[in-house]
């Protein structure tokens, strides 16, 4: 499975550790940066990550910034992207089951790294339930 990942400076350490973890589990990870803790603008990394999911180059995406909000808002500008800001494993599970989210946005300044990895595991291992949720998800796009 191909995973796109990106972050700003606040999420750099988490991004690096999560990418390393996923690679060790056999996932193909495409890292869209940033490459250090030097201050950057989060859209410069959220847009390419979301584009990879939007264009089918990656099945899922992971975005990380300080609050998770900025990268989440940016990703959701892309058609076909359903990015969800997650702060616990229950939200990570439900957003896959009910919303068929394809990007998880994480708040590096508000959750421990180990818990962020647990949320990613939950997100990637949870299937969309379909059924009654299909029609709702179909109504999300503006097109």
TrEMBL record:
The keyword Isomerase applies. It comes from the Bacteria. Transmembrane segments: none annotated. It holds the Pfam family LacAB_rpiB. GO terms for biological process: D-allose catabolic process; pentose-phosphate shunt, non-oxidative branch. GO terms for molecular function: ribose-5-phosphate isomerase activity. D-ribulose 5-phosphate binds at residues 8-9, 66-70, 99, 109, 132, 136. Keywords: Isomerase. Gene3D superfamilies: Sugar-phosphate isomerase, RpiB/LacA/LacB. InterPro entries: RpiB, RpiB_LacA_LacB, RpiB_LacA_LacB_sf. The keyword Isomerase applies. This is Ribose 5-phosphate isomerase B. The lineage of its organism: Bacteria, Pseudomonadati, Bacteroidota, Flavobacteriia, Flavobacteriales.
């Amino acid at each position: 499975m191909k995973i796109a990942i990106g972050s700003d400076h606040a999420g750099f350490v988490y991004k690096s550790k999560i990418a390393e973890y996923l690679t060790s589990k056999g996932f193909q990870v495409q890292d869209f940066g940033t490459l250090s803790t030097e201050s950057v603008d989060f859209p410069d990394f959220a847009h390419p990550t979301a584009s990879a999911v939007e264009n089918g180059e990656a099945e899922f995406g992971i975005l990380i910034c300080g609050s998770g909000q900025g990268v989440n808002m940016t990703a959701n500008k892309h058609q076909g992207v359903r990015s969800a800001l997650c702060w616990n494993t229950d939200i990570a599970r439900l957003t896959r089951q009910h919303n068929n989210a394809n990007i998880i946005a994480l708040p590096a300044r508000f959750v421990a790294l180990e818990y962020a990895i647990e949320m990613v595991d939950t997100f990637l291992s949870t299937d969309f339930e379909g059924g009654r949720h299909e029609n709702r998800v179909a109504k999300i796009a503006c097109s």
